[in-house]
Amino acid sequence: MTTRTPLMAGNWKMNMDHLQAIHLINELALDLQDHKHDYATAEVVVLPPFTDIRSVQTVIDGDNLKIRYGAQDVSQHDLGAYTGEISTAMLSKLGCSYVTVGHSERREYHNESDALVNAKARKILAADMTPIICCGEGLDVRKAGNQVSHVLAQIEGAFANISQADAARCVVAYEPIWAIGTGEVATPGDAQEVCSAIRVKLAELYDQATADGMRILYGGSVKSSNVAELMQEADVDGALVGGASLQAEEFAKICRLGK
Ligand code: PEP
Q: Which of the residues 103, 105, 112, 193 is marked catalytic?
């Protein structure tokens, strides 16, 4: 069991218009409040689509909720002629704390490389937000038994030219692609194998104290019924949750580590 404050982040993906988002965040807040959620048990974060962020901010700030929020992606550019893009300055101005980068869906459908993930992570850090750097192997790599070397190469690429002080502010999310949205969750042992290898790599790149302070999440079909056993593992410090974060009660239960 981790000594770091667990982080439960809900990746809403391309779901929820802004009215639905207001409803979901209110329901989540009520459920956490009803169960007297102790935020030392887990820090709670939601990652809505861009169009919802202003509405989510208004609810959270208006009611002084202890829920943090952020975005699912960001541009690597500062501003200018990049049609359709959103900058770190825009997200920061909206009070975002976290931004995911390198989600496997971005890597697969938008050809995002490790170099681009690195460029985006550095922009997020420069804007004083926290990148949640996603990594993970596909089924072919897993079947060949190469998951650790595959993920560690992604980590090396993502952390290139990131200083020790900045790395200490990052979160890593290990998300095996074969477990995302499939209902096929990794075993706690599978998750621990890669999360612990990531921590060893971070200690090599920086130092042990830095690596020990960083949070490494597991993502891939996390539910209230499987979160507790995943959280028993020494190097699993929380979860990046997709589908289950769209149901307030279920996500709140995940934030309570299944209780
Ligand atoms: C995700 O999108 O990051 C994810 C882990 O999805 P799901 O929980 O639905 O597998």
A: 103
